[in-house]
Predict the structure.
Amino acid sequence: MKPALFIGLIFTALLACSQQEEKTVEIPVAIENASKYTPAMVVNEKDYACGMPVTAGISDTCHYEDKAYGFCSPECKDIFLKDPKKYLAIK
């Protein structure tokens, strides 16, 4: 009886040791259309180059005369930077 009990314990121990632990892997998910800029970060309510409201989304910003301005695209920012005084006078 003792050998059968001993063999059963060894079998149970081997079976328990052979099971692999499940590993979970977190996969980062990119969030589409997530803007790193918010309208609260800029002083303008509309994109000076195209007139689009900054609440629709800010994809680029620039600093001019110690103020941050938001733009819907890098192209609009480039247009503004060519002559910022002209666009700021329009407000």
Observations:
- The helical segments are 2-18, 74-82, 84-90.
- Residues 35-91 form one domain.
- Residues 2-18 form the longest helix (17 residues).
- The two ends are 96 Å apart (CA to CA).
